[in-house]
Amino acid sequence: MKESLERLVGIVPEIISLQVGINEKESDMAYDAVLISTFANAEALARYKVHPEHVKVSNYCKKIRESRAFVDFTE
């Protein structure tokens, strides 16, 4: 999953930055991974979400994850 997401950099032009962190602490309260990505604006994020290469990775992630949480915010 980490490598698949990181490969999107340079393929999906809307990505300004993208980092995948893998959890190092065992806890029932923790998720296994975090994706931190930066886009110019909400429109660029919307284009990223439907980009064919992102859709492939997203479909893979849906198959292997148990749950997810997300936060979209503007600085």
List key phrases describing it.
75 residues, two-stranded antiparallel sheet, alpha+beta, 3 helices
Number of strands: 2
- How do the helices and strands follow one another from N- to C-terminus? HEEHH
Q: Numbering strands along the chain, what is their spatial order in the largest sheet?
A: 1-2
- Straight-line N-to-C gap: 27 Å
Helix content: 25-40%
Globular, elongated, flat, extended or rod-shaped: what is the shape?
globular
Low-confidence stretches: none
Based on CA atoms alone, the radius of gyration comes out at: 13 Å
Number of helical regions: 3
**Mind describing the biggest β-sheet?**
2 strands, antiparallel
Mean pLDDT: 96
- How does the helix and strand content classify structurally? alpha+beta
Strand content: 15-25%
In oligomeric terms, what are we looking at? Answer: single chain
Task: Tell me about this structure.
This protein is α+β, with helices and mostly antiparallel strands. The chain contains three helices and two strands, in the order αββαα. It has helices spanning 2-6, 42-50, 52-64, and strands at residues 17-22, 33-38. The protein has a two-stranded antiparallel sheet with strand order 1-2. The protein starts with a helix and ends in an 11-residue tail after the last helix. The relative contact order is 0.21.
